[in-house]
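Researcher: Structure prediction, please.
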Amino acid sequence: MKITLITVGKIKEKYLRDAIAEYSKRLSRYCKLEIIEVADEKTPDHASDIVENTIRDKEAERIMKYVKEDTYVITLEINGKLLSSEELSAKINQLGIQGTSHITFIIGGSIGLGKEVLARSDYALSFSKMTFPHQLMRVILLEQIYRSYRIINGEPYHK
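Model: Predicted structure follows.
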């Protein structure tokens, strides 16, 4: 299975880069992982809806350049479906059983995802009703993908 993460913005903090590197290394036994960062747009304070939509559209255009036609796209959205770790594991496993060989997870920028990305999404996933920094979300997502593979393979994981 190939797993691609497409994310908006760069990771500046060393501790987050270290965590991403650790989970990437752990995942290498289970899947081929690719992480693609696209540039984010600066969002002015108190931006109008029109400005925010323009920003989301620009970021969406950058994201869509990397979305392959044959990939199953899972977007991270606050209003997406909440899954337990076991349910996410079952989702990934089921996709593999059905013949999906490539899953792309998309994490948007600070104001969310553009219409084009949302329209291409095969599945909207939420980790919480809370808002998390998108840089931290990358670490949380990688940890959950790693946990999913541990569950799929019947290996111990912390409950």
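Model: The chain has five helices and five strands.
Researcher: Thanks, that helps.
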